Amino acid sequence: MSIAVMSQWCAVAYGALDLTSQVENVEGTACAVTAIYPAEPILLTGEVANLWLRLINGPVADGDLSVEQRNQIREFHDFGIASPNLDHPARVHKVAPPWLESFQHELVYALIASLAREDGIDAVFIKGPFLKVQGLRTRAHSADVDVLVDPQHVEHLAEIVSSWGWTSRPAVLEGTRIRHSITLAPSSWGCEVDIHWRMPGYAKPDNEAFALIHGRSESHDTASVSITVPDAPTNAVLGALHALRPRYTDRTQLHLVHIARSFIASGGEQTVPIAQQLQADLVLYEVLSTEFPGAVPRPTYAVPQNWQWRSKQGQFRSYMSALKQIPWVERPAVTWRLVWPPPHFFTTSGEVKEPTRVNIFKARVNRLWRGLVKTIPVLQKTIAKRR
Hints:
The protein is an alpha+beta fold. It has 15 helices and 13 strands. It has three domains: 8-83; 103-309, 2-Layer Sandwich (Beta Polymerase, domain 2); 312-386, no CATH class. The protein has helices at residues 46-56, 67-79, 103-118, 130-133, 154-162, 206-215, 232-244, 254-267, 271-278, 285-291, 305-308, 315-323, 331-339, 343-348, 357-386; strands at 8-11, 16-18, 30-33, 42-45, 60-61, 82-83, 123-125, 144-149, 166-168, 181-186, 192-196, 217-222, 225-230. The chain has a five-stranded mixed sheet, with helices on both faces. A three-stranded antiparallel sheet has the order 5-1-6. Strands 2-3-4 form a three-stranded antiparallel sheet, sandwiched between helices.
């Protein structure tokens, strides 16, 4: 963009925080700012930070700046934290101190929300620290960022986020909608991102469920960016589903049931109609009926497929059940990937440091052997039951 000789300037960013009280050995102001171009957050301190903050209260005209300040602001522009476009969609109007335990996570929330908004992608941030804000749990910190996205735009948002320094974590069922999310591992941001198109446990079609959850959302300011979060009762239902999600076993762990009950109790009676609308009232039936006796008739529809295959005892049986839900034309490729994963499955996960043919072959054989060791006892039990 060509810049006029005499311009007016405003501050822009995909996230900004006032870290003055958190950064040691720094005199004056300190701000962490995420530029609008792919890069890690920038730390501004002292007079440089004061000049950038001046743009927030602006606009600031070139005529009101010294030659040195003009040059500094043009550097801001080159970095992607200042613009002569006063209507810029990423214009920053205020900067507040962080409210999360990890300010880096707060910047990630703001970045993902900004990237989605810029491309017109509807996104709702689920679970995480907002559960504490909404009085649904006592723990504040979450290890990763979970975002529920309009199902038709999941892969597109994953591509955009990847260009900022994340890498898709390999999964043997990748490329199929049997999964519920794409997991992006960070390089240097230090925070994993899960981009969901569904939460396992509800039977409502993904697009209808997303529309329902998005329609019951509210705004929260995070790192100077407005992000969308489900309201408390809806987030309580999603939190309960996550707590009870089967982990390749048909055994329900009592402490997870307690967590799910706590979510539902904190979310209140509104959780009942929300669960029913999402058709999550079947997998949550015991929890809902315990907390609100008589308010929940037992559903008559089948257990959602996205819950069934995870409920099988043992990973082998789970994957075999999942394969039945995949179109016939795709099954051979997915089955082969389960047995003999592609090289990136091992290199991206760090299991293989040097991706030579020999190392990849050894990793594949080792994985196959581990799978057989776990599977044989399960098959023996299945055969014994049928006798």
